[in-house]
Amino acid sequence: xxxxxxxxxxxxxxxxxxxxxxxxxxxxxxxxxxxxxxxxxxxxxxxxxxxxxxxxxxxxxxxxxxxxxxxxxxxxxxxxxxxxxxxxxxxxxxxxxxxxxxxxxxxxxxxxxxxxxxxxxxxxxxxxxxxxxxxxxxxxxxxxxxxxxxxxxxxxxxxxxxxxxxxxxxxxxxxxxxxxxxxxxxxxxxxxxxxxxxxxxxxxxxxxxxxxxxxxxxxxxxxxxxxxxxxxxxxxxxxxxxxxxxxxxxxxxxxxxxxxxxxxxxxxxxxxxxxxxxxxxxxxxxxxxxxxxxxxxxxxxxxxxxxxxxxxxxxxxxxxx
Length: 321
Ligand code: ASP
What we know:
There is one protein chain. It contains eleven helices and ten strands. The chain has helices at residues 3-14, 38-54, 70-76, 91-98, 134-143, 158-170, 182-191, 201-209, 257-272, 274-282, 295-316, and strands spanning 27-31, 58-62, 84-88, 110-126, 149-152, 175-178, 196-200, 213-218, 244-252, 286-287. Strands 1, 2, 3, 4, 5, 6, 7, 8, 9 and 10 form a ten-stranded mixed beta sheet that branches. It binds aspartic acid (ASP).
């Protein structure tokens, strides 16, 4: 055996083998919705900030599908080596109730990395809708319920969940128009082909501030600092109307612990990063503290959210398949 070979072998053994080199190439972060939408925005901010401590680029890849179920399915079947990870939102907790034939189990098929942020939603409408406040908007919907249309990102999306709760709260059903993300839905709203939607502040704040859409309320319990003039739905009489969207990161089940540890450490750097916090805050979102950017916190949160939304969805009798 040559000295060089022995030295290389020794270096490998001391460094814990090839895994210790992780990551030695780009990591892919799969997004279940269309580019330019709210989850995509959170993904790009997070990926960029995590890339620095990892010393590699995290490439964001969109895998949009109805209800955002294709991306988790893809990650479930990906090689568990840390090079393929998933960002998902509350949909990870609502799809088990919405899909009777879901091809992944959120609680069994993934390793957890951690929680990223919380995002409130807003009820927005096309700019020229003839309603200057929520009261008039409600009257308009009720008077025109056969022609009013509601856009969402497909069954199981946050916008679908929020719309479902909204229609149930105002006891009026309207036509829903599904898209593969609220980025394309927003285009149609701006073009005036659909009337309203409920979407995350990460997608709506810029349009609201530019006066390109009308806004009738936020879905958080308290007003959002970046949109202080917008009242909550609760303030406007819709008791208990609170929907909070949270984003998190997952890896395929069986990813080595040292790899997960590196991803967790990078996520914790990201949620503490001043630029990330500013970008989130400008868009109405709040990063989780670093102690929530952990596998244990995500696992507990996911389980609690599945337990919370399952009965609400079952009671509403909505199925996607
Ligand atoms: N998160 C989706 C998107 O990025 C929207 C939604 O869930 O409603 O388009």
